[in-house]
Amino acid sequence: MPSIRGHLLGALLLLSPLSSAAPTRKAPKYATLVNRQWSNATYDFIIAGGGIAGLTLADRLTEDPNVSVLVIEAGPFDWGQEGILVPGIFQPWWFFWPNLVSTPEPGLNNRQVGAITGQVVGGGSAINAMVYVRGDTEDYDAWGALQEDSTLSWNDMLPYFLKSETFTEPDAQFAQDANITWNPLVRGSFGPVQYTYPQHSYPGGEVWYNAANAVGLPHIEDPLAGHKAGVFPMPSVLDAATGTRSYAKVNHYDRVSAARPNYHILPSNMVSKVIFREDCKTVRGVEYVPTAGGNATVALASREVILAAGGFNTPKVLQLSGIGPKPLLDKFGIKVISNLPGVGQNLQDQPTLTVPLTFTNNLEPNSNSLNTDPAYAAEQYALYQSDKKGAFTVISSLGTNIAGVSLKQATPDFLDIVAAARAANPADSLPADVDPTVLAGYEAQREIIISQFENENVSVGNLHWGTSDNALVYHLRPLSRGSVNIVSTDPLVNPEINFRTATDPIDQAVYTALFRKNRELFATPEMQALGPAEASPFAEAQTDAEIDALLRDNINPTNAHQCCTAAMMPKSLGGVVDAKQQVYGVSGLRVADISFWPFQTGGSPLGTIYAAAERLADIIKAEYGISSL
Ligand SMILES: Cc1cc2nc3c(=O)[nH]c(=O)nc-3n(C[C@H](O)[C@H](O)[C@H](O)COP(=O)(O)OP(=O)(O)OC[C@H]3O[C@@H](n4cnc5c(N)ncnc54)[C@H](O)[C@@H]3O)c2cc1C
Ligand SMILES: *[C@@H]1O[C@H](CO)[C@@H](O)[C@H](O)[C@H]1NC(C)=O
Ligand SMILES: *[C@@H]1O[C@H](CO)[C@@H](O)[C@H](O)[C@H]1NC(C)=O
Ligand SMILES: *[C@@H]1O[C@H](CO)[C@@H](O)[C@H](O)[C@H]1NC(C)=O
Ligand SMILES: *[C@@H]1O[C@H](CO)[C@@H](O)[C@H](O)[C@H]1NC(C)=O
Ligand SMILES: *[C@@H]1O[C@H](CO)[C@@H](O)[C@H](O)[C@H]1NC(C)=O
């Protein structure tokens, strides 16, 4: 891997000439990887977090050779291991953020669950399941409508989706056989993120596809066109040329780093807080510490600091910097720079349910065959090496089809759920001591989401069958809201994460409908031919009350899609950033990562994060007259 050798060389070059200390220093030239000896270095922009949003922005801002950018990333560089690069091997735990656990979850019988997020250059994109599905048109339109002044909409986002990506068409015969269809007008051709479809399908996938059709989930022509209430093969951020993962380290750093002496990454260090000038308002830079522990150092930003640390850590850095709910900051003796009650609130994920299955007559090969059949695995690995095809192009344990389900498709009683949601008091869904502005923002979101429940084209859930021993039921649009709050002023201590999954009773009603829809799909003659049965205790749960209890025992609150903890909304609605993603009450500070979303979309997050960062890069470039390539 030439890129890795490049990193080592950069690091070695830096060790020699740097002993003299000066009050402010220019960034070192001709090195893309910096180390801590460059304390007090001055950059135009400092980005906290080298994940999807952070590296996309760093790439775009450094297109202007006169603009210097430092990305400080808590995790290390990966070393090109197959568990990251090869989908069929998929070992994400290499770079899970350590010791991240939720509080006992009040809606889930006080279960504590692992909270998952990446800690590595590339962030979640280095370890995610590579599924690329955009949100619904209604999501982006509603995000824009929530703002006081914004052009944000699906039509505004689409050019940025296209700019961010390059779609490689699958082999035509394979596409036809696998029911892969797309609309070229919504597929990008020149952008850094590579995507295509795995060149593989299991026989069970076809059975499931037809069963989905049979229960009213039609074929979706293009899941990236803004609606996907129906069944479709999943696009994957797979580089068709190499057969490997296309992730932010590769597509927004390796791709350009050799030509960008102005683009620096400092890995294995955590931004502990943003620091301000004497006016306690204008950003001066950041303080950071080694992730492994050690003394704090300062880096200075002449223009802006951009937070891109992800849905858990961006609110943590804000709170440690004195930007957050005053009562929380007071509790830890942190000087209040900007009292923003919304920081760390509004936490949402997309909960998942794994339904364990047995089969009397399942088809082979299936998604478990790579584990159980060494001869098959060897043959598939050889095919992968020679042709970039076969089972190793699919993320381990997943299948290749998924279904989006609108509430109407899930249950004929959907209008009863809508009516119950409208009749409920939104305040009952949030903690009793909620700030009134945060409650007002929640009320606004809730109205939008309930209207999405009524819309036959908008998915509220996903169903998936990997083709072996479980089915997955995803809840995409929860009404429950959680929180992320610091528990210490020590930057190395994780915040308290309370998902509060299933605390809103409407979420249980929606999830029950999705769970029953999954059962309906497995009850079709197509699936019954395989002899499926839910394993205990799932099979025994039949009444709504029994299913409610089963869900509370088994829902996983997270699909690692944690978002919305520094939401873009007016301040009067508990917002943290304005329509240009600038943090209220200070100057020179923005939020670029998934934290800025007001609420979850009907898609998987990665595409929206790349595109939103492209859009933000253009906003920032226009403001400072920064040129593009
Ligand atoms: C296992 C897994 C599977 C997933 N599967 C999918 C999928 O199939 N499809 C999909 O669309 N999405 C998926 N996701 C979600 C998706 O990857 C994330 O939503 C996305 O990466 C978030 O992007 P981001 O830029 O907001 O933050 P991230 O990509 O999470 O980047 C944040 C970065 O900031 C760093 N950081 C945190 N705190 C600090 C600090 N104080 N200082 C410096 N650096 C810091 C972190 O180490 C991290 O690298 C998955 C995620 C995971 C973890
Ligand atoms: C960095 O700046 C601080 C004052 O802001 C100073 O005390 C310190 O010595 C400087 N460090 C280096 C390495 O220049
Ligand atoms: C580059 O930046 C310097 C100061 O940092 C400025 O004087 C010069 O005009 C800039 N050049 C361009 C092309 O923007
Ligand atoms: C593709 O769709 C057709 C008709 O909708 C169906 O008969 C066929 O089985 C499907 N094939 C796969 C691989 O899903
Ligand atoms: C941290 O700073 C203290 C006090 O300045 C110093 O004694 C110590 O050696 C430093 N530790 C490291 C790891 O640099
Ligand atoms: C759903 O989509 C269909 C087909 O595009 C359209 O006719 C219908 O009006 C849409 N329904 C809603 C509620 O937008």
TrEMBL record:
It comes from the Eukaryota. Residues 1-21 form the signal peptide. Keywords: FAD, Flavoprotein, Signal. SUPFAM superfamilies: FAD-linked reductases, C-terminal domain, FAD/NAD(P)-binding domain. The keyword Ligase does not apply. GO terms for molecular function: flavin adenine dinucleotide binding; oxidoreductase activity, acting on CH-OH group of donors. Residues 478-613 form the Glucose-methanol-choline oxidoreductase C-terminal domain. Its cofactor is FAD. GO terms for biological process: secondary metabolite biosynthetic process. The keyword Translocase does not apply. It holds the Pfam family GMC_oxred_N. FAD binds at residues 120, 128-131, 271. Residues 43-351 form the Glucose-methanol-choline oxidoreductase N-terminal domain. Belongs to the GMC oxidoreductase family. PANTHER family: DEHYDROGENASE XPTC-RELATED, GLUCOSE-METHANOL-CHOLINE GMC OXIDOREDUCTASE. This is GMC oxidoreductase. It comes from Podospora fimiseda.
